[in-house]
Amino acid sequence: METVDNIKDDEIDLALLKNLPLSFVKGNVFLPLRSHESKLLGAVADNRGIYALRDLARKMNLTPHPIEVREEIIIDAINRIYSQTSRVNEVMGDIKGEDLSMIATEFESPKDLLELTEEAPIIRLLNAMLMEAVKEKASDIHIEPYEKGVDVRFRVDGILNKVLTPPKIIHDALISRIKIIADLDIAEKRLPQDGRIKLLVGGKNIDIRVSIIPTALGERAVLRLLDRQAGVLSLEMLGLADAILYSMKSALSRQNGIILVTGPTGSGKTTTLYASLLKLNTEDRNIITVEDPVEYQLSGIGQMQVNPKIGLSFATGLRSILRQDPDVMMIGEIRDIETAEIAVHASLTGHLVLSTLHTNDAPSAVARLVDMGIEPFLVSSSLVCILAQRLVREICPYCKEAYTPTQQEIDYLELDRTPLHLYRGKGCDKCLNKGYLGRTGIYELLEVNSEIRSLIGERTDAQKITKFASEQGFKPMYKDGIDKIISGVTTIDEVLRVTHSHEITKTP
Prior knowledge:
Distance between the termini: 67 Å
Structural class: alpha/beta
Low-confidence stretches: 108-117, 502-508
Protein backbone atom coordinates (compact mmCIF):
# COMPACT_ATOMS: atom_id res chain seq x y z
CA MET A 1 0.00 0.00 0.00
CA GLU A 2 1.00 3.59 -0.63
CA THR A 3 1.82 5.46 2.62
CA VAL A 4 1.42 9.19 3.40
CA ASP A 5 2.10 11.28 6.52
CA ASN A 6 -0.71 13.84 6.34
CA ILE A 7 -4.14 14.54 4.85
CA LYS A 8 -4.82 17.99 3.41
CA ASP A 9 -8.36 19.41 3.28
CA ASP A 10 -8.15 20.20 -0.43
CA GLU A 11 -7.43 16.52 -1.20
CA ILE A 12 -10.87 15.44 0.06
CA ASP A 13 -14.03 15.41 -2.04
CA LEU A 14 -16.74 16.41 0.48
CA ALA A 15 -19.46 14.95 -1.77
CA LEU A 16 -18.19 11.45 -0.89
CA LEU A 17 -18.96 12.07 2.80
CA LYS A 18 -22.49 13.36 2.35
CA ASN A 19 -24.22 10.05 3.15
CA LEU A 20 -21.51 8.56 5.37
CA PRO A 21 -22.28 8.83 9.12
CA LEU A 22 -19.47 10.10 11.33
CA SER A 23 -19.75 6.98 13.52
CA PHE A 24 -19.13 4.74 10.47
CA VAL A 25 -15.91 6.42 9.29
CA LYS A 26 -14.60 6.84 12.86
CA GLY A 27 -15.49 3.26 13.83
CA ASN A 28 -13.61 1.86 10.84
CA VAL A 29 -10.85 4.51 10.98
CA PHE A 30 -11.00 5.31 7.29
CA LEU A 31 -11.67 8.38 5.17
CA PRO A 32 -12.63 8.32 1.47
CA LEU A 33 -10.56 10.99 -0.27
CA ARG A 34 -11.54 11.19 -3.94
CA SER A 35 -12.35 9.15 -7.04
CA HIS A 36 -9.79 9.09 -9.84
CA GLU A 37 -9.81 7.04 -13.06
CA SER A 38 -12.38 4.48 -11.82
CA LYS A 39 -10.55 4.19 -8.49
CA LEU A 40 -11.78 5.26 -5.05
CA LEU A 41 -8.84 6.57 -3.03
CA GLY A 42 -9.21 6.31 0.74
CA ALA A 43 -7.04 6.72 3.84
CA VAL A 44 -6.98 3.59 6.03
CA ALA A 45 -5.18 2.65 9.22
CA ASP A 46 -5.76 -1.13 9.32
CA ASN A 47 -7.95 -3.95 7.97
CA ARG A 48 -11.17 -2.35 9.25
CA GLY A 49 -10.60 0.59 6.96
CA ILE A 50 -9.67 -1.60 4.00
CA TYR A 51 -12.92 -3.58 4.27
CA ALA A 52 -15.02 -0.41 4.72
CA LEU A 53 -13.35 1.22 1.69
CA ARG A 54 -13.89 -1.95 -0.37
CA ASP A 55 -17.61 -1.99 0.48
CA LEU A 56 -18.03 1.69 -0.34
CA ALA A 57 -16.14 1.32 -3.65
CA ARG A 58 -18.31 -1.66 -4.61
CA LYS A 59 -21.49 0.42 -4.13
CA MET A 60 -20.04 3.14 -6.34
CA ASN A 61 -18.81 0.65 -8.99
CA LEU A 62 -15.22 1.72 -8.41
CA THR A 63 -12.00 -0.10 -7.54
CA PRO A 64 -10.76 0.50 -3.96
CA HIS A 65 -7.31 2.10 -3.70
CA PRO A 66 -6.26 2.18 0.00
CA ILE A 67 -3.56 4.58 1.23
CA GLU A 68 -1.98 3.79 4.59
CA VAL A 69 -2.08 6.67 7.10
CA ARG A 70 -1.51 6.67 10.87
CA GLU A 71 -4.72 6.33 12.90
CA GLU A 72 -4.35 9.64 14.79
CA ILE A 73 -3.92 11.57 11.50
CA ILE A 74 -7.09 10.01 10.05
CA ILE A 75 -9.11 10.78 13.22
CA ASP A 76 -7.86 14.36 13.21
CA ALA A 77 -8.83 14.76 9.53
CA ILE A 78 -12.28 13.23 10.17
CA ASN A 79 -12.94 15.67 13.03
CA ARG A 80 -11.75 18.59 10.91
CA ILE A 81 -13.68 17.70 7.76
CA TYR A 82 -16.94 16.67 9.41
CA SER A 83 -17.01 19.95 11.34
CA GLN A 84 -16.91 21.71 7.96
CA THR A 85 -19.79 19.64 6.58
CA SER A 86 -22.04 20.42 9.58
CA ARG A 87 -22.49 24.10 8.87
CA VAL A 88 -25.49 25.75 10.53
CA ASN A 89 -26.86 27.24 7.32
CA GLU A 90 -26.80 23.84 5.60
CA VAL A 91 -28.87 22.32 8.40
CA MET A 92 -31.27 25.26 8.34
CA GLY A 93 -31.62 24.72 4.59
CA ASP A 94 -32.58 21.10 5.25
CA ILE A 95 -35.35 22.10 7.68
CA LYS A 96 -38.48 22.50 5.57
CA GLY A 97 -41.84 24.07 6.45
CA GLU A 98 -43.38 20.70 7.30
CA ASP A 99 -40.49 20.02 9.69
CA LEU A 100 -41.22 23.27 11.53
CA SER A 101 -44.83 22.22 12.03
CA MET A 102 -43.66 18.85 13.30
CA ILE A 103 -41.25 20.53 15.73
CA ALA A 104 -44.01 22.79 17.04
CA THR A 105 -46.28 19.82 17.82
CA GLU A 106 -43.50 17.55 19.10
CA PHE A 107 -42.51 20.09 21.72
CA GLU A 108 -45.97 20.70 23.11
CA SER A 109 -45.42 18.43 26.11
CA PRO A 110 -42.30 17.42 28.05
CA LYS A 111 -43.04 13.73 27.49
CA ASP A 112 -42.58 14.02 23.71
CA LEU A 113 -39.12 15.56 24.12
CA LEU A 114 -37.61 12.40 25.51
CA GLU A 115 -38.85 10.34 22.55
CA LEU A 116 -37.08 12.43 19.90
CA THR A 117 -34.49 10.64 17.80
CA GLU A 118 -31.07 12.09 17.02
CA GLU A 119 -32.35 12.79 13.50
CA ALA A 120 -34.87 15.39 14.69
CA PRO A 121 -34.14 18.66 12.85
CA ILE A 122 -33.83 20.69 16.02
CA ILE A 123 -31.18 18.33 17.40
CA ARG A 124 -29.22 18.51 14.17
CA LEU A 125 -29.50 22.30 14.25
CA LEU A 126 -28.15 22.57 17.82
CA ASN A 127 -25.36 20.08 17.07
CA ALA A 128 -24.40 22.04 13.95
CA MET A 129 -24.39 25.30 15.95
CA LEU A 130 -22.06 23.78 18.55
CA MET A 131 -19.76 22.36 15.86
CA GLU A 132 -19.64 25.71 14.08
CA ALA A 133 -18.92 27.57 17.35
CA VAL A 134 -16.02 25.23 18.18
CA LYS A 135 -14.64 25.54 14.64
CA GLU A 136 -14.73 29.35 14.79
CA LYS A 137 -13.24 29.27 18.34
CA ALA A 138 -16.26 31.13 19.73
CA SER A 139 -16.34 31.75 23.48
CA ASP A 140 -20.13 32.24 23.69
CA ILE A 141 -23.32 31.41 21.79
CA HIS A 142 -26.25 33.82 22.26
CA ILE A 143 -29.80 32.71 21.37
CA GLU A 144 -32.06 35.77 21.54
CA PRO A 145 -35.81 35.75 20.79
CA TYR A 146 -37.49 38.75 19.17
CA GLU A 147 -41.02 39.44 17.94
CA LYS A 148 -40.64 37.91 14.48
CA GLY A 149 -37.57 35.72 14.74
CA VAL A 150 -34.58 34.51 16.71
CA ASP A 151 -31.02 35.82 16.50
CA VAL A 152 -28.12 33.41 17.02
CA ARG A 153 -24.83 35.20 17.63
CA PHE A 154 -21.31 33.92 18.31
CA ARG A 155 -18.73 35.86 20.32
CA VAL A 156 -15.38 35.32 18.61
CA ASP A 157 -12.30 37.07 20.04
CA GLY A 158 -14.58 39.28 22.14
CA ILE A 159 -16.78 40.49 19.24
CA LEU A 160 -20.40 39.35 18.72
CA ASN A 161 -21.34 38.31 15.17
CA LYS A 162 -24.79 37.25 13.96
CA VAL A 163 -24.56 33.83 12.30
CA LEU A 164 -28.18 32.76 11.92
CA THR A 165 -31.77 34.04 12.07
CA PRO A 166 -34.03 30.98 12.41
CA PRO A 167 -37.84 31.40 12.41
CA LYS A 168 -39.57 32.09 15.73
CA ILE A 169 -41.49 28.79 15.56
CA ILE A 170 -38.38 26.76 16.43
CA HIS A 171 -37.35 28.91 19.42
CA ASP A 172 -39.17 26.91 22.12
CA ALA A 173 -37.91 23.65 20.67
CA LEU A 174 -34.30 24.88 20.60
CA ILE A 175 -34.40 26.14 24.21
CA SER A 176 -36.06 22.90 25.35
CA ARG A 177 -33.34 20.83 23.69
CA ILE A 178 -30.66 22.90 25.46
CA LYS A 179 -32.48 22.38 28.78
CA ILE A 180 -32.58 18.61 28.26
CA ILE A 181 -28.84 18.22 27.67
CA ALA A 182 -28.04 20.73 30.47
CA ASP A 183 -30.28 18.74 32.86
CA LEU A 184 -32.56 21.73 33.56
CA ASP A 185 -36.32 21.86 34.22
CA ILE A 186 -37.96 22.06 30.78
CA ALA A 187 -41.36 22.93 32.27
CA GLU A 188 -40.04 25.99 34.16
CA LYS A 189 -40.15 29.01 31.86
CA ARG A 190 -40.67 31.81 34.39
CA LEU A 191 -37.42 31.69 36.36
CA PRO A 192 -33.75 31.97 35.36
CA GLN A 193 -31.87 28.66 35.22
CA ASP A 194 -28.17 27.78 35.11
CA GLY A 195 -26.70 24.48 34.01
CA ARG A 196 -23.70 22.74 32.53
CA ILE A 197 -23.11 20.53 29.50
CA LYS A 198 -20.08 18.33 28.80
CA LEU A 199 -19.64 17.38 25.16
CA LEU A 200 -17.12 15.84 22.81
CA VAL A 201 -17.19 18.09 19.73
CA GLY A 202 -14.83 17.36 16.87
CA GLY A 203 -12.56 15.36 19.17
CA LYS A 204 -12.37 18.16 21.76
CA ASN A 205 -13.69 18.02 25.32
CA ILE A 206 -15.91 21.09 25.57
CA ASP A 207 -17.45 22.26 28.84
CA ILE A 208 -20.48 24.52 28.26
CA ARG A 209 -21.97 26.81 30.90
CA VAL A 210 -25.65 27.43 30.18
CA SER A 211 -27.61 30.47 31.38
CA ILE A 212 -31.30 30.81 30.50
CA ILE A 213 -33.41 33.80 31.53
CA PRO A 214 -37.05 34.67 30.79
CA THR A 215 -37.72 37.78 28.68
CA ALA A 216 -40.91 39.39 27.42
CA LEU A 217 -40.58 37.58 24.07
CA GLY A 218 -39.40 34.18 25.29
CA GLU A 219 -36.42 32.60 27.00
CA ARG A 220 -32.95 33.88 26.17
CA ALA A 221 -30.00 31.48 26.35
CA VAL A 222 -26.27 32.13 26.54
CA LEU A 223 -23.88 29.18 26.23
CA ARG A 224 -20.26 29.79 27.29
CA LEU A 225 -17.81 27.33 25.75
CA LEU A 226 -14.65 26.26 27.55
CA ASP A 227 -12.12 24.06 25.78
CA ARG A 228 -10.73 21.88 28.57
CA GLN A 229 -7.91 20.59 26.38
CA ALA A 230 -6.66 24.13 25.77
CA GLY A 231 -5.37 24.10 29.35
CA VAL A 232 -4.29 26.99 31.54
CA LEU A 233 -1.87 29.60 30.20
CA SER A 234 1.31 30.50 32.08
CA LEU A 235 2.09 34.08 33.13
CA GLU A 236 4.67 34.31 30.35
CA MET A 237 1.99 33.57 27.72
CA LEU A 238 -0.41 36.38 28.74
CA GLY A 239 1.34 39.20 26.89
CA LEU A 240 2.60 40.98 30.03
CA ALA A 241 5.32 43.57 29.44
CA ASP A 242 8.69 42.57 30.98
CA ALA A 243 8.46 45.13 33.81
CA ILE A 244 4.90 44.08 34.72
CA LEU A 245 5.81 40.37 34.54
CA TYR A 246 8.76 40.95 36.88
CA SER A 247 6.59 42.90 39.36
CA MET A 248 3.84 40.23 39.24
CA LYS A 249 6.33 37.45 39.95
CA SER A 250 7.78 39.52 42.79
CA ALA A 251 4.30 40.04 44.29
CA LEU A 252 3.50 36.32 44.00
CA SER A 253 6.65 35.46 45.92
CA ARG A 254 5.30 37.21 49.05
CA GLN A 255 3.96 35.24 52.01
CA ASN A 256 0.95 37.46 52.65
CA GLY A 257 -1.12 40.31 51.22
CA ILE A 258 -3.81 40.82 48.57
CA ILE A 259 -3.15 40.77 44.83
CA LEU A 260 -6.12 42.12 42.86
CA VAL A 261 -6.90 41.69 39.15
CA THR A 262 -9.48 44.16 37.87
CA GLY A 263 -11.42 44.75 34.67
CA PRO A 264 -14.91 44.32 33.20
CA THR A 265 -16.60 40.97 32.51
CA GLY A 266 -14.78 39.00 29.82
CA SER A 267 -11.45 40.80 30.17
CA GLY A 268 -9.49 37.65 31.09
CA LYS A 269 -9.23 38.18 34.86
CA THR A 270 -9.83 34.51 35.72
CA THR A 271 -7.21 33.40 33.17
CA THR A 272 -4.67 35.70 34.86
CA LEU A 273 -5.56 34.31 38.30
CA TYR A 274 -5.19 30.72 37.05
CA ALA A 275 -1.82 31.58 35.50
CA SER A 276 -0.75 33.04 38.87
CA LEU A 277 -1.89 29.90 40.71
CA LEU A 278 0.05 27.79 38.22
CA LYS A 279 3.17 29.77 39.18
CA LEU A 280 2.48 29.25 42.91
CA ASN A 281 1.47 25.58 42.67
CA THR A 282 4.30 23.70 44.39
CA GLU A 283 4.27 20.74 46.79
CA ASP A 284 5.13 22.88 49.80
CA ARG A 285 2.09 25.17 49.39
CA ASN A 286 -1.54 24.53 50.29
CA ILE A 287 -3.68 26.41 47.74
CA ILE A 288 -7.48 26.58 48.00
CA THR A 289 -9.91 28.51 45.79
CA VAL A 290 -13.54 29.63 46.06
CA GLU A 291 -14.99 30.16 42.59
CA ASP A 292 -18.27 30.78 40.79
CA PRO A 293 -18.05 28.57 38.80
CA VAL A 294 -14.88 26.42 38.70
CA GLU A 295 -13.85 26.93 35.06
CA TYR A 296 -10.75 24.71 34.86
CA GLN A 297 -9.64 21.86 37.12
CA LEU A 298 -6.14 22.53 38.43
CA SER A 299 -4.18 19.52 39.65
CA GLY A 300 -2.85 19.91 43.20
CA ILE A 301 -5.22 22.78 44.10
CA GLY A 302 -8.43 22.50 46.18
CA GLN A 303 -11.27 24.21 44.30
CA MET A 304 -14.64 24.98 45.89
CA GLN A 305 -17.66 26.13 43.88
CA VAL A 306 -20.12 28.53 45.50
CA ASN A 307 -23.75 27.45 45.61
CA PRO A 308 -26.15 30.21 46.75
CA LYS A 309 -29.11 27.79 46.72
CA ILE A 310 -27.72 26.02 49.78
CA GLY A 311 -26.20 29.11 51.37
CA LEU A 312 -22.61 28.52 50.19
CA SER A 313 -21.49 32.03 49.25
CA PHE A 314 -17.97 33.42 48.79
CA ALA A 315 -18.00 34.60 52.42
CA THR A 316 -19.13 31.28 53.96
CA GLY A 317 -16.72 29.36 51.69
CA LEU A 318 -13.86 31.64 52.76
CA ARG A 319 -14.57 31.12 56.46
CA SER A 320 -14.42 27.36 55.91
CA ILE A 321 -11.19 27.30 53.94
CA LEU A 322 -9.44 29.42 56.58
CA ARG A 323 -9.76 26.33 58.79
CA GLN A 324 -8.04 24.25 56.08
CA ASP A 325 -4.63 25.80 56.82
CA PRO A 326 -4.13 27.44 53.39
CA ASP A 327 -0.97 29.26 52.34
CA VAL A 328 -2.61 30.79 49.25
CA MET A 329 -6.31 31.58 48.76
CA MET A 330 -8.01 32.55 45.52
CA ILE A 331 -11.44 34.21 45.66
CA GLY A 332 -13.28 34.30 42.33
CA GLU A 333 -14.60 37.80 42.98
CA ILE A 334 -14.94 40.28 45.85
CA ARG A 335 -18.62 41.19 45.56
CA ASP A 336 -19.60 42.49 49.00
CA ILE A 337 -18.17 43.89 52.22
CA GLU A 338 -18.37 40.53 54.01
CA THR A 339 -16.12 38.83 51.44
CA ALA A 340 -13.80 41.88 51.35
CA GLU A 341 -13.42 41.92 55.14
CA ILE A 342 -12.55 38.21 55.33
CA ALA A 343 -10.04 38.61 52.47
CA VAL A 344 -8.37 41.58 54.20
CA HIS A 345 -8.15 39.84 57.57
CA ALA A 346 -6.84 36.64 55.94
CA SER A 347 -4.08 38.64 54.23
CA LEU A 348 -3.15 40.32 57.51
CA THR A 349 -2.87 36.96 59.28
CA GLY A 350 -0.25 35.45 56.98
CA HIS A 351 -2.12 34.35 53.85
CA LEU A 352 -1.53 35.36 50.25
CA VAL A 353 -4.94 36.22 48.76
CA LEU A 354 -5.68 36.54 45.03
CA SER A 355 -8.97 37.92 43.80
CA THR A 356 -10.79 39.98 41.16
CA LEU A 357 -12.76 43.21 41.32
CA HIS A 358 -14.91 44.98 38.73
CA THR A 359 -13.29 48.40 38.22
CA ASN A 360 -12.12 50.30 35.13
CA ASP A 361 -8.49 50.77 36.16
CA ALA A 362 -6.03 49.84 38.89
CA PRO A 363 -6.25 52.98 41.10
CA SER A 364 -10.09 52.79 41.13
CA ALA A 365 -9.87 49.43 42.93
CA VAL A 366 -8.64 51.22 46.06
CA ALA A 367 -11.65 53.56 46.06
CA ARG A 368 -13.97 50.60 45.42
CA LEU A 369 -12.76 48.75 48.53
CA VAL A 370 -13.10 51.89 50.66
CA ASP A 371 -16.60 52.51 49.23
CA MET A 372 -17.55 48.96 50.20
CA GLY A 373 -16.85 49.90 53.81
CA ILE A 374 -13.29 48.63 54.40
CA GLU A 375 -11.28 51.02 56.57
CA PRO A 376 -8.54 52.80 54.54
CA PHE A 377 -5.79 51.72 56.96
CA LEU A 378 -6.79 48.06 56.43
CA VAL A 379 -6.79 48.51 52.64
CA SER A 380 -3.36 50.15 52.70
CA SER A 381 -1.94 47.45 55.00
CA SER A 382 -3.20 44.49 52.99
CA LEU A 383 -2.86 45.47 49.31
CA VAL A 384 0.32 44.36 47.51
CA CYS A 385 -0.51 45.29 43.92
CA ILE A 386 -3.43 45.77 41.51
CA LEU A 387 -3.33 44.57 37.91
CA ALA A 388 -5.92 46.06 35.54
CA GLN A 389 -6.41 44.48 32.12
CA ARG A 390 -8.36 44.33 28.86
CA LEU A 391 -8.25 41.87 25.96
CA VAL A 392 -7.41 43.06 22.44
CA ARG A 393 -7.50 41.04 19.23
CA GLU A 394 -4.14 40.15 17.71
CA ILE A 395 -3.40 40.83 14.04
CA CYS A 396 -3.68 37.60 12.02
CA PRO A 397 -0.09 36.43 11.33
CA TYR A 398 -1.14 34.82 8.02
CA CYS A 399 -2.37 38.03 6.37
CA LYS A 400 -0.44 40.67 8.34
CA GLU A 401 0.72 43.59 6.22
CA ALA A 402 2.61 46.82 6.88
CA TYR A 403 1.15 50.21 5.97
CA THR A 404 2.13 53.85 6.32
CA PRO A 405 0.21 55.49 9.20
CA THR A 406 -1.86 58.64 8.65
CA GLN A 407 -1.08 61.85 10.52
CA GLN A 408 -4.14 61.26 12.71
CA GLU A 409 -2.83 57.82 13.71
CA ILE A 410 0.60 59.29 14.49
CA ASP A 411 -1.11 61.88 16.72
CA TYR A 412 -3.02 59.09 18.50
CA LEU A 413 0.25 57.35 19.30
CA GLU A 414 1.79 60.55 20.74
CA LEU A 415 5.25 59.63 19.49
CA ASP A 416 8.28 61.89 19.24
CA ARG A 417 9.34 60.10 16.06
CA THR A 418 7.20 58.99 13.14
CA PRO A 419 7.06 55.19 12.79
CA LEU A 420 7.92 54.01 9.29
CA HIS A 421 4.94 51.66 9.30
CA LEU A 422 2.20 50.08 11.40
CA TYR A 423 0.50 46.74 10.80
CA ARG A 424 -2.98 45.41 10.04
CA GLY A 425 -4.61 42.20 8.86
CA LYS A 426 -5.73 42.06 5.25
CA GLY A 427 -8.18 39.20 5.86
CA CYS A 428 -7.75 35.55 4.85
CA ASP A 429 -9.31 32.09 5.22
CA LYS A 430 -7.46 31.44 8.51
CA CYS A 431 -9.05 34.46 10.25
CA LEU A 432 -12.37 34.23 8.36
CA ASN A 433 -11.48 37.52 6.59
CA LYS A 434 -11.51 39.48 9.86
CA GLY A 435 -7.82 40.39 9.91
CA TYR A 436 -7.54 39.24 13.54
CA LEU A 437 -6.71 35.86 15.01
CA GLY A 438 -6.50 35.24 18.76
CA ARG A 439 -6.27 37.70 21.64
CA THR A 440 -3.72 39.09 24.04
CA GLY A 441 -3.92 41.43 27.02
CA ILE A 442 -3.00 45.05 27.66
CA TYR A 443 -2.22 45.83 31.28
CA GLU A 444 -1.39 48.38 33.95
CA LEU A 445 0.10 47.44 37.30
CA LEU A 446 -0.11 49.60 40.42
CA GLU A 447 2.38 48.54 43.08
CA VAL A 448 1.31 49.64 46.55
CA ASN A 449 4.48 51.10 48.10
CA SER A 450 4.83 53.12 51.31
CA GLU A 451 3.96 56.47 49.64
CA ILE A 452 0.77 55.09 48.06
CA ARG A 453 -0.14 53.45 51.40
CA SER A 454 0.00 56.89 52.98
CA LEU A 455 -2.27 58.31 50.25
CA ILE A 456 -4.78 55.46 50.75
CA GLY A 457 -4.74 56.06 54.51
CA GLU A 458 -5.62 59.72 53.86
CA ARG A 459 -8.64 58.64 51.70
CA THR A 460 -7.05 60.18 48.60
CA ASP A 461 -9.18 59.73 45.45
CA ALA A 462 -8.17 57.56 42.48
CA GLN A 463 -7.13 60.49 40.26
CA LYS A 464 -4.56 61.77 42.76
CA ILE A 465 -3.23 58.25 43.30
CA THR A 466 -2.89 57.87 39.50
CA LYS A 467 -1.07 61.21 39.21
CA PHE A 468 1.33 60.38 42.04
CA ALA A 469 1.98 56.84 40.73
CA SER A 470 2.62 58.18 37.21
CA GLU A 471 5.36 60.42 38.60
CA GLN A 472 6.96 57.26 40.03
CA GLY A 473 6.81 55.35 36.74
CA PHE A 474 3.27 53.92 36.69
CA LYS A 475 2.33 53.24 33.06
CA PRO A 476 -1.40 53.52 32.18
CA MET A 477 -3.02 50.69 30.24
CA TYR A 478 -3.39 52.61 26.98
CA LYS A 479 0.40 53.11 26.85
CA ASP A 480 0.87 49.34 27.04
CA GLY A 481 -1.59 49.21 24.14
CA ILE A 482 0.52 51.74 22.18
CA ASP A 483 3.62 49.55 22.69
CA LYS A 484 1.72 46.58 21.25
CA ILE A 485 0.49 48.68 18.29
CA ILE A 486 4.04 49.77 17.42
CA SER A 487 5.40 46.22 17.79
CA GLY A 488 2.73 44.94 15.38
CA VAL A 489 0.74 42.83 17.84
CA THR A 490 -2.56 44.73 17.53
CA THR A 491 -4.11 47.82 15.93
CA ILE A 492 -5.11 51.31 17.02
CA ASP A 493 -8.80 50.41 16.49
CA GLU A 494 -8.53 47.55 18.99
CA VAL A 495 -6.83 49.62 21.71
CA LEU A 496 -9.41 52.40 21.26
CA ARG A 497 -12.24 49.86 21.41
CA VAL A 498 -11.28 48.44 24.79
CA THR A 499 -9.80 51.48 26.57
CA HIS A 500 -11.96 54.42 25.33
CA SER A 501 -8.98 56.40 26.56
CA HIS A 502 -9.31 60.18 26.66
CA GLU A 503 -5.54 60.48 26.42
CA ILE A 504 -5.46 58.55 23.15
CA THR A 505 -8.49 60.13 21.52
CA LYS A 506 -7.91 63.77 22.41
CA THR A 507 -6.87 64.48 18.79
CA PRO A 508 -10.08 64.48 16.72
